[in-house]
Amino acid sequence: MRYLFWLIKFLLFVILFGFAMHNAETVKLNFFFDYAWQAPLALLLLIAFVLGAVFGILAVLGKVIRLRRELVALRKEVRARTQVEVVTADAALQPPRDAI
After folding, report:
1. Ranges assigned E (strand) in the chain
2. ∠ at Cα 4 (53, 14), nearest 5°?
3. Tens-digit pLDDT profile for residues 45-81
4. pTM of this prediction?
């Protein structure tokens, strides 16, 4: 199974490398105020992909942090509840003091 994953990774790398080599010609990217940038098409696509991934992660980051805080609070609550239940269970197993 491990070798299968390495084979798939290698084949994906070869395909993406071939794509980059076939799209190595320079393209011109025009910005505002007559600013232009010339770079290989594969590089521009890679930059666009990375920027999209970064913005996607930043968009989800607030929700992830909020959920982690909620998880920590719920774990503390469960831990406190189990400690209370253990104490009450031990007290229920002991005979009453007035019977001794």
Report:
1. 26-30, 36-40
2. 55
3. 888 889 999 999 999 999 999 999 999 999 998 888 8
4. 0.55
